[in-house]
């Protein structure tokens, strides 16, 4: 295998930026110190942020006019690699430059950029991103904070009307933030124009809260304890009219509201859509953390031995156990798929945000793609980190081996920047909408015909006719079945067919919803919520599989391509194995073929076993990035030392006899 | 529902002891302080241990002769409840009294009891349990530490011959332990008699390491940071001959070895078997932690609202979403099943260790049962804690809401006291052995007939004949299928049939293994390792289902029994849903019925939704035990306050108009 070449492919279009960021992540002064209490951890992270700012390492996304790089793709690529320094450092950087700074960039206009961005970039002005409230997280449109225009003084009055409207979980809010981008209901001339963003100073340069601003500390969290998350409330706090970030909505001195987007719902979603980069970057960062954990667990699993092997005096290497292969290899396959899918997402993101491909359709597709991939990779990272932790046994639980504390920190990635289930539901709704578009312009009869055709095809596959066909062809011929499963066209048909059928089924069940009273329509939708989210997941898996398959086309080295093709097959077959029940009861896979899926997965992991070290080496994480004592060769040294001890003892003739061995021999006689 | 009565049933045979222990776990001075750095957390835990010792709360398992309670079942029940004070406290108590003290009790004799147990009980003598080594965890028989008898001085010489033989991950080893029960290869008169346990002093009363003893600190861990885990090594450390814990093997002054158990392998497993209580107690403690997390998440999910509901001005309660029901209710069902199964296990444990039912068969069954249940509940606790954390969103990530730090601490339960996969493999091997016993005494022809019969039955079900039968009967009659699924006889047949068939299949595949060369036999076994572990899991699930079903018999209140029967059905159907592919491709469930399983689960969770608060209230955990801010009614207060704010605003006539609403109305025209 050409490990180096594969490594370059994994690094992707912004590989140089990733490498530079990895160098940063390798610097000891940017590393986590696990022994610090959370108060000191927070101070250390702030200092580290200053180090990054001094280098200008985090300016890439900002406009060139104010000293930035105007390179959104490179910025995200570099940001994602910081996770291996310390996820707290990554997320605090994300709060400062990715959320606070990005909101000013995306929602503000040039005057705002000139006024604040230089200080944001240099960290002279640390800030919070005050969107989420205690009682409204996912439903941003319903937040309670108000910004009411006072024409007499030409000021905004920012107010927190009740406890549930306190802003919460905000990085930089407990201690370090001097300002916040506050999302609030914009009210002027007696009209609520919906949620807009305002620049609100919150602390003096000495760290004193400004009049009317309250703050609470979120205290210790399940992870990311280097970030000073906290709460903010505003008691009729006044800010100048021009502190409204007014790209998508403005208020004149006389209080008249204007916006380039007439439809308030579309305006709201456009504003939120500019903040998609958080989701994009978490997709990449989670994939990186999962890669690191796999690199650690594979290195250890290749050195660690336990229980006697068939060779006398030798113990079995963990990765020679089928179970250990089964535990780690499908995760490696998924992480490759995620990595390639992420590159697609990042390119789409860069196209839109660099302006090169900025169309409403591309923006919408980008948001759907990010909403589909971010849940998959953030959840998968938690699964992978847990499996790797357990696969390393007690050693895996020690902080010196990195994995458990990475897992603590990554935990919250599943619910921040969009709760994973809510994001998948968005994807599901988009799929339903796209499905409905097929029928647009058709008259009643044509539509009925189209639906009937689909129902018929479902009954056809559900009745088992196709399945019986497979049974007759395959009977007693497992090789033929395996060939069928290995065929990428089969995998694609199975994965895409599942999405299409699930969406068609849900659409069919919901087709009369619009005619029902609101409560009944909501109840009907709710009855299919679980299925809809499953369909969205299936869609995301298909996208990952397609990205992996596309990436195979770019591999020139034949042996590498062969191994990666097995790995893609393992990814596809693992998905089919997970959803096998569905394929069986819809008749898309015959029972005979279904019974072979697991056996073929076993065969694939055994075949990939010899390549497993190469596969994780291609991630390109060396010691200064992994920093896990069990992944430094220490285990191999220990194993060698103990084997040598027993060898010398045996040869000395002074080894004690074994009661157990002698007892066994006596018994045999 | 009769919540109080159900609560008593869940408390089980040692309910009074559980209640007393819960009172302890409610005392603030025994609670975790999340803000402490790990060094101070360790000191706090030590102080807490002294508080427990002063009360005599932890003496229940020790012999009455030395001041104990001779009540092993009550001891474990009380121990399990400590998890809600602080899992570090629980585990440090477990190290001191459950491992160190228990090893002296179980492996030592009266002289040892009299000499050490009083100080162990009072905590005058804190100790470590030094079994695991860096390179040998699961394979205890292969540890490297040696204890060589020196007849001249009548002493044991304890030695760590190489780095990999350092004892590791031992609670009390880094700081507080003054002695250790050290497991080592017993060598006398040139013969290695296998692993035995020795009492070895390691520190002076002032905490100085004794000559020849080395210690290292394991440092920060993924959790349980109140326990001072560390490493120990011995450089030819000498202890008196009588420090051998000699219940199962002794050495006379002249160095002659003797044992009541002739077979060294059986002797080894007998010694290890006396330590089964760790596994038993982790099964119960994990179940308790999962119950607490569910109680928190359900309370919050019943108060928290998000997104508009069909009722104007109202938002939807989280638990009214199908997805939220789907996320939490099957876990509640599983935790009930675990709770009842644990009670069975605890009774069996008490029977054996109280001496009432102490037979070799009961011991063996107890060990298998513990090996089956401990992996299920420790893993499930991690899944439940994660799901509950995510179901509470950002709030779920705060330490003030308990769940994330409980998850950190419980993580290691999956690999300590026996790695979960290794335990399930033990269970699988036992199932294979039991299966083979059927053929004992049969001649070649009878055996062939028996096997042929089984293969035939497999082909029969695999060929789809039974399935086709179901299809014809059910066609277009989902009610009939649901009735079939709801029938406990069906559930039992499906769950038990799966175990039997899987084991028979593996036994069939391995039947010639004994005739193969060692390496080939090992390779053949390895090819079926994954299946064997799946079979063991299926067996454990069956045991849990049976325990749940048995427990239904004891419920007198009819409405309670009805709800609990639905919950049992949800448990059974969730298992069948998880393994549906297997049921489909073996032809045990028809595709038509298979397609209904998920829909019936949806229907069950909707039906149980109104009872969900009762179901978690029956766990009996009140505020001083849960100590989660979001589970105190605070969320309901916030919700009420914000609704009241909007009501007053509406009625004041001063509410701003909504651009969004007016835009929608204009559009409709």
Which helices and strands appear, and what pairs or packs with what?
2 copies of one chain form a homodimer.
Chain A: H1 3-11, H2 15-25, H3 38-55, H4 72-81, H5 87-107, H6 110-122, E1 127-130, E2 146-150, E3 155-159, E4 167-170, E5 179-188, E6 191-201, E7 213-217, E8 230-234, E9 237-240, E10 250-251, E11 257-258, H7 264-273, H8 277-301, E12 305-308, E13 315-317, H9 322-353, H10 360-391, H11 403-410, H12 420-437, H13 444-462, H14 465-474, H15 478-486, H16 488-510, H17 518-527, H18 529-552, H19 558-578, H20 580-585, H21 591-608, H22 612-617, H23 623-626, H24 634-652, E14 657-658, H25 659-668
Parallel strand pairs in A: 1-5, 2-5
Antiparallel strand pairs in A: 2-3, 3-9, 4-8, 5-6, 7-8, 10-11, 12-13
Helix pairs in contact in A: 2-4, 3-5, 4-8, 4-9, 5-6, 8-9, 8-10, 9-10, 9-18, 9-19, 9-21, 10-11, 10-12, 10-18, 12-16, 12-18, 13-16, 15-21, 16-18, 16-19, 18-19, 19-21
